[in-house]
Design brief:
Elements: E1 6-12, H1 18-33, H2 48-57, E2 60-67, E3 76-83
Antiparallel strand pairs: 1-3, 2-3
Length: 84
């Protein structure tokens, strides 16, 4: 993205909750057991502050972080970032 470009990233949050572990189990079944999806390396869900730090290191300014898990069994989060 060029300067000012907006990045929207939806990811599951690694917060240690039951939703976190349910999401890891679901990914393990789809990737490792059934081979329905692909993944490189281990299956990891990072904490919110880690993802925000990675975005900053990659040259983004995190504008907003929105929890999307209310009423759902997956701890999704939306990161809204801008390229600097």
């Amino acid at each position: 993205l060029g300067p000012g470009g907006q990045l929207l990233l939806k990811e599951a949050e690694g917060d240690g909750s039951w939703k976190h572990y349910k999401c890891l189990a679901q990914e393990w079944v789809m990737v490792k057991l059934l081979g329905r999806t692909k993944a490189g390396g281990g299956l990891v869900l990072e904490p919110r502050d880690t993802v925000e730090g990675l975005l900053r290191e990659a040259g983004f300014t995190v504008r907003e972080t929105v929890a999307l898990d209310a009423g759902y069994t997956t701890p999704h989060i939306l990161y809204v970032a801008e390229a600097t």
